[in-house]
Design brief:
single chain; 57 residues; mainly alpha; Arc Repressor Mutant, subunit A; 4 helices; globular; transcription regulation; Tscrpt_reg_AraC-type_HTH; Putative AraC family transcriptional regulator; transcription; DNA-binding
């Protein structure tokens, strides 16, 4: 696992927590995780987690 992969996985775990425990929008969470768009975040989330942010919620 590269440092970048580790960081991305860590960000997604933080995002999972926020998706489950807050009513923040996916766009707001994406921005907080350092993504410029909800779309880029959604693609990265699905690549790492295997499902979409909305499915996690």
């Amino acid at each position: 696992t590269s440092p970048m992969e580790y960081l991305t996985r860590w960000r997604m775990l933080l995002a999972c927590d926020r998706l489950k425990n807050t009513r923040d929008s996916v766009a707001l969470i994406a921005n907080a995780m350092g993504y410029e768009s909800e779309s880029a975040f959604g693609k990265a989330f699905k690549r790492v987690m295997g499902y979409s942010p909305r499915q996690h919620r």
